[in-house]
């Protein structure tokens, strides 16, 4: 399922777009503010970002510029009819496409599909896919299933590795025990004893944490676990 981040301060429009995208089978998340939108854009992997130009705290151009310093996530800029200069500027800053407000939802969906298709084609051509994940001083080489911390290789079991990978692929997202059971162990019903997650988090901490230092994995009481940036 494609994950789409929507950053738009007009709440009605944002919610409308979000619902329409969900109806089309996309997974969506909305931010009404440039700064939190940027944080989420950087911390999670999105298939595309719909970005308003005029936003509180950080405008769309600045958000685009900062995303592009580290990521190539496709961006569609949403701009008002008269902001031609800004549209051009948005593309200069690295947006992939723009759509003029007010727009018909069908047009947005068509542009989004086209953009995702283009990205798919490009990534198929791309032989050297990004397979390295980093969190603080931990690096995971996905192809080699290798984990290093401060350049030392850490020996993990398959489950510990999957657990670490899942947490690192969802930085700043609190993962509930049920969710981790589903993702790491492949369990789909809730009857399974969720303590197994706590046990494995403990194993993992024993291997990756340094004694006396804050754990890489934080417990969110009553909910689950998260690695925070
Ligand atoms: Ca706006």
How do the helices and strands line up, and which of them pair or pack?
Blueprint: E1 3-7, H1 11-23, E2 27-31, H2 34-43, E3 48-52, H3 60-70, E4 75-80, H4 84-92, E5 97-101, H5 105-125, E6 132-135, E7 138-141, E8 146-149, E9 152-154, H6 158-168, E10 175-176, H7 177-185, H8 195-208, E11 218-220, E12 224-226
Parallel strand pairs: 1-2, 1-3, 3-4, 4-5
Antiparallel strand pairs: 6-7, 7-8, 8-9, 10-12, 11-12
Helix pairs in contact: 2-3, 6-7, 6-8
This protein binds calcium ion.
The site of calcium ion has 5 residues, from loops.
Structure write-up:
The chain is an alpha/beta fold and 229 residues long. The protein has two domains: 3-125, Response regulator (Rossmann fold, 3-Layer(aba) Sandwich), CATH 3.40.50; 132-226, Winged helix-like DNA-binding domain superfamily/Winged helix DNA-binding domain (Arc Repressor Mutant, subunit A). It has eight helices and twelve strands. α6 crosses α7 and α6 packs across α8. It is elongated. The two termini are 25 Å apart. Bound molecules: calcium ion.
